[in-house]
């Protein structure tokens, strides 16, 4: 996906999925700051696409920016039509574990 992601972004500029795939590939290589930058560049272009703020929450959390992660998580949750399913996914997402620490 590291090679295909940029091609998808270029060939389908009105679709957010290529950016998500590229970000995911970079994150899988432990280059977490880079996918954050990739998605920050397009988050305003796709204001209704909850996967982008969800991924940004994951990256912010992994980078130790818990308050930023919380803001992105809240935005993702506000955008989805299925809050319960997203909440279930988020609670099992390893990258978001620091977000839930300290909750009772």
Structural class: mainly alpha
| Content of β-strand | under 5%
Annotated CATH topology: Serine Threonine Protein Phosphatase 5, Tetratricopeptide repeat
Q: Output mean pLDDT.
A: 91
Total of domains: 1
* First and last CA, distance: 38 Å
CATH superfamily, called what? Tetratricopeptide repeat domain
Largest sheet: none
Which CATH class is shown?
A: Mainly Alpha
Percent of residues in helices comes to 55-70%
Shape: globular
Low-confidence parts? none
Run of helices and strands:
HHHHHHH
Question: How large, in whole angstroms, is the Cα Rg?
Answer: 13 Å
Number of strands: 0
Figure out the total of helices. Answer: 7
Report what the structure shows.
This protein has 104 residues and is mainly alpha-helical. It has one domain: Serine Threonine Protein Phosphatase 5, Tetratricopeptide repeat (Alpha Horseshoe), CATH 1.25.40. It is built from 7 helices and no strands. Helix 1 runs antiparallel to helix 2 and helix 2 runs parallel beside helix 4. The longest helix has 14 residues. The chain is globular and about 40 Å long. The termini are far apart. The model has no long low-confidence stretch (mean pLDDT 91).
Task: Describe the structure concisely.
With 104 residues, the chain is an all-alpha fold.
Keywords:
mainly alpha; Serine Threonine Protein Phosphatase 5, Tetratricopeptide repeat; 65% helix
SSE map:
Layout: H1 4-11, H2 17-28, H3 33-40, H4 51-62, H5 66-79, H6 83-92, H7 97-100
């Amino acid at each position: 996906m590291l090679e295909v992601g940029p091609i998808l972004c270029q060939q389908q500029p009105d679709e957010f999925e290529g950016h998500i795939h590229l970000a995911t590939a970079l994150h899988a290589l432990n280059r977490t700051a880079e996918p954050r930058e990739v998605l920050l560049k397009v988050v305003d272009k796709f204001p209704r696409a909850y996967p982008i703020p969800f991924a940004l929450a994951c990256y912010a959390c992994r980078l130790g920016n818990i308050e930023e992660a919380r803001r992105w998580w809240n935005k993702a949750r506000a955008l989805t039509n299925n809050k319960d399913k997203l909440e279930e996914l988020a609670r099992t997402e390893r990258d978001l574990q620091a977000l839930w620490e300290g909750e009772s």
